[in-house]
């Protein structure tokens, strides 16, 4: 057995893996950004914003898309457009980025945290109903990392209790459930284009919907009340009285970058999904490692991270998942890290919301996985050649051979 690189042995990747820089950049988009700069037309329903809205709606087969400043305000605007506010409760997964819950608080409503499934790591439909009260108005499933929440079951629960479903698709660009793009199954789909994301423009977000009236409201609320496509200073039709709106606009620079990435999204998603399948098969064959399961009805799976779980019972005494990941990194898989965001949403360091403003309904599975088992590998590691993907798996095998009991 070869000595682990962390102990001075030769790493599996003797020469560095060819990991593409993220987010991607290309000369044509750089030229386009210069053109926009020199055009003096930088914002306000500009040609790239309008074009991206149309192109992303066409890509996802939604009736409309409204670009916004980021994937946090998209959640806020979605709830506001649906009339969710003080006195209402919204079900969210106990494990997600803090924005999924804090956006609910910003709307004046109460996030109710519900546990995740042990395989997909997404909101557990079996635990939703026990968290529903007469105040519940909506469910926000998060399609986490590289999986999709069980939309069939969640939609059935929502229909039974007359609840809205807002899909948090911040990690799910390109994902499809039974052929339907993520974000088009619930009432609204909310996307983030922050720079770590699968489709990225530094900052940015969008809501998609198939409800024309809602689509109009999403556009107006995020564009200080202006109707879709309006020219600055020329509001032809005023917003309805009581529709309190914001300036959550995006710029032309961001929209142009996103348009260029959208052109390759399908091919890139398929490429990453193929690599993820190879890795999944190889890693699932290692006793003690279990890769996050893809969405049960995912016909195409988009990836934001490649997540896996290590069973602490198979590791030698004194070795934890974080040590395992450090040893894999030393083998040259530098994108391998332990534990995602490191804590449940309401235990994250940046969670500053007092206990009386949220409710925890269930969390045991999420807690166990996040505390003891979770590891992730960043998106750009799924962009390697097939040969290098096999070397990534070799690194996991090598470390487990040394670290298992
Ligand atoms: C699940 C989830 N929802 C929402 C967001 C918020 O997106 P943004 O950073 O664009 O505000 C993120 C960001 O990481 C996220 O991971």
Q: What is the number of strand segments?
A: 15
Largest sheet: 8 strands, mixed
What is the share of helical residues? 25-40%
Total helices: the number is 11
Instruction: Tell me the name of the CATH class of the largest domain.
Output: Alpha Beta
Question: What does this protein structure show overall?
Answer:
The protein is an alpha/beta fold and 405 residues long. It folds into 2 domains: 5-22 and 265-403, Aspartate Aminotransferase, domain 1; 27-262, Type I PLP-dependent aspartate aminotransferase-like (Major domain) (Aspartate Aminotransferase, domain 2, 3-Layer(aba) Sandwich). The chain has 11 helices and 15 strands. It has helices at residues 27-39, 47-60, 73-81, 99-106, 151-161, 212-222, 252-262, 265-284, 321-330, 364-373, 386-403, and strands spanning 64-68, 89-93, 110-114, 136-139, 164-168, 176-177, 180-181, 188-192, 205-209, 289-291, 298-300, 305-310, 336-338, 359-360, 374-378. Bound molecules: pyridoxal-5'-phosphate. Pyridoxal-5'-phosphate binds at residues 70-72, 96-97, 99-100, 142, 168, 170-171, 192, 194, 205.
């Amino acid at each position: 057995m070869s000595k682990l690189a962390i102990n001075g042995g030769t790493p599996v990747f003797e020469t560095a893996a060819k990991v593409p820089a993220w987010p991607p950049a290309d000369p044509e988009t750089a030229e386009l950004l210069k053109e926009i700069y020199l055009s003096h037309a930088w914002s306000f329903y500009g040609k790239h914003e309008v074009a991206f809205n149309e192109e992303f709606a066409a890509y996802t087969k939604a009736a409309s898309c409204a670009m916004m400043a980021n994937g946090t305000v998209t959640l806020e605007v979605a709830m506001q457009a649906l009339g969710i506010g003080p006195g209402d409760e919204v079900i969210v997964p106990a494990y997600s980025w803090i924005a999924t819950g804090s956006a609910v608080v910003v709307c004046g409503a109460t996030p109710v945290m519900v546990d995740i499934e042990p395989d997909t790591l997404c909101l557990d439909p079996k635990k939703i109903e026990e968290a529903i009260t007469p105040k519940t108005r909506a469910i926000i499933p998060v399609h986490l990392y590289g999986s999709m929440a069980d939309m069939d079951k969640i939609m059935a629960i929502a229909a039974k209790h007359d609840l809205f479903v807002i899909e948090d698709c911040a990690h799910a660009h390109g994902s499809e459930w039974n052929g339907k793009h993520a974000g088009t199954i619930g009432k609204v789909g909310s996307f983030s284009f922050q720079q770590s994301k699968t489709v990225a423009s530094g900052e940015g977000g969008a809501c998609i919907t198939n409800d024309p009236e809602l689509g109009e409201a999403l556009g107006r609320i995020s564009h200080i009340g202006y109707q879709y496509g309006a020219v600055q200073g020329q509001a032809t039709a005023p917003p309805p009285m009581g529709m309190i709106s914001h300036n959550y606009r995006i710029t032309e620079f961001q929209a142009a970058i996103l348009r260029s990435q959208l052109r390759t999204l399908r091919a890139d998603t398929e490429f990453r999904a193929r690599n993820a399948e190879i890795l999944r098969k190889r890693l699932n064959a290692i006793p003690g490692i279990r890769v996050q399961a893809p969405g049960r009805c995912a016909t195409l799976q988009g990836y934001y991270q490649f997540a896996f779980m290590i069973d602490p019972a198979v590791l030698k005494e004194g070795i934890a998942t974080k040590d395992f990941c450090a040893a894999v990194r030393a083998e040259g898989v530098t994108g391998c890290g332990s534990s995602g965001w490191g804590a449940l949403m309401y235990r994250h360091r940046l969670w500053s919301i007092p206990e009386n403003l949220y409710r925890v309904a269930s969390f045991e599975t999420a807690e166990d996985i996040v505390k003891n088992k979770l590891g992730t590998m960043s998106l750009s590691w799924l962009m390697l050649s097939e040969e290098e993907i096999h070397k990534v798996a070799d690194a996991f095998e090598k470390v487990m051979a040394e670290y298992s009991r």
